[in-house]
Design goal:
The chain contains six helices and two strands; from the N terminus they run αααββααα. The two termini are about 35 Å apart. The chain is mainly alpha-helical and about 120 residues long. Strand 1 and strand 2 form a beta hairpin.
């Protein structure tokens, strides 16, 4: 899988959320977070199409884009690369660093505990 750039990942995240969108819709959502030009958004989406990251329905004048790669698989691949390159392959170091960045809410901690319990039960 081609590793998406930061800009490509922003667009993929929007497409995963929206399911499908044209360039204008993606561009408007990107503008909510940062200043970017329409032609820049268009060019990135064209490159993503060439890389196979998105599909493009060209039946109408306004092309409709959809993510061609799955969110879970992409996140798993990116996380594995990050864990290996930045944390020496240590899941513990990655998790400790992530949890140390912001104070998790009680609900998040409960979900983390539940997940750890499930992992522990699988190994038993």
């Amino acid at each position: 899988m081609n590793k998406p750039t930061e800009a490509e990942l922003e667009i993929l995240s929007l497409l995963w959320e929206m399911k499908e969108a044209n360039v204008r819709q993606i561009h408007e959502r990107l503008l909510e977070k940062k200043e970017t030009g329409y032609t820049t958004t268009l060019k990135i989406m064209q490159i993503m199409h060439a890389k196979g990251m998105v599909t493009r329905d060209e039946k109408s004048r306004t092309h409709i884009y959809r993510a061609a790669i799955k969110q879970g698989e992409t996140q798993k691949s990116l996380l594995k690369n990050l864990m290996n390159s930045a944390f020496g392959g240590s899941a513990k170091s990655l998790v400790m660093q992530a949890l140390g960045q912001e104070e998790p809410s009680k609900e998040e901690l409960d979900e983390i505990r539940e997940f750890l319990d499930q992992l522990e039960n699988k190994k038993s």
